[in-house]
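Following up on my earlier thread - several people asked me to post the actual chain instead of describing it. Fair enough. Here it is, all 166 residues.
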Amino acid sequence: MDSRLNHFDAAGNAVMVDVGGKSLTERTAIASGKIFVGAEVYHAIESATAKKGDVLGVARVAGIMAAKKTSDVIPLCHPLPLSHCRLEFEMLPDEGAVKAVATVKTTWATGVEMEALHAVSVALLTIYDMCKAIDKRMTLGEIHLERKSGGKSGEFYAANEISRTK
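Reply from S.P.:
Thanks for posting it. Predicted structure:
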């Protein structure tokens, strides 16, 4: 068994990693993703005219709530005391897309990468839900960890890694 796969015991059974002996350190993760939309949906989001209300405001709250509940959805994640979670959105007219960026922080014995990824995913799904009456042809993509800091593995920057192929 690959020793890097620490969610499995020697017999191959799924386990929650024991972080009890690890020191508490400040940890940050930033994740992002995009939802690609048609012109009508893009305009409704940008002009805040969607019938269901403030699309990005609701998506922001949904993403923050998702970060706080990650361990309820991802089976082997630890429940973490988050010290900060922020969701930001960028309108990308040339791509017909909205980019979501989540920044999550904690001071604890394990990282917050899953919380940041979960926040982005749920924020984008919320945009889809609020705009599907306009057009169901939206697609979500490019959800990834941009960077993380803290913990045993130290710093990670996606820009320094091998480029993803499309």
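The helical segments are 39-46, 55-68, 70-73, 113-131. That should answer part of your original question.
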